[in-house]
Amino acid sequence: MTTRIITTEDEDFENEIKLALSWADTALFAVSYANYHAFQRLQHSFNTFLRDNGKLRTIFDIDRLITDKKLIEEFATIPGDSECKIFQTKTKPPRGARQVSFHSKLYVFHDKEKYSAIIGSSNFTLGGIRNNIECNICLSGIKDKLFESIIEYFWRIWNDKCLFNVLDHSEILDDYQRLLDEANKRKKETDAFLKELKANIERKSTLIEEAKKQSVSTEIMYLLGLLSANSAIDFTKGQIEIRLFRSIANQGNEFEGFYYYPDITSYKISQEVAHNKDVEVISEKVSELLSFVDPMAELSTEHVRDYHFLIKIKSNPSSQLFKFLKSHNINVDDKNNTTPFIPEELFSTREQKLVTAFLRGYCDLKSRISLSDGIYKTVDGRKVASLLRLGISLTNRHPELIPKFKKLFKKIGLKKGVYYSDPKVRDRELLIRVDVRVAPVDLVGTHWRKIFLRDFKNYFVSDKTESRE
Question: Has domain 2-209 been given CATH number 3.30.870.10?
Answer without folding.
Answer: yes
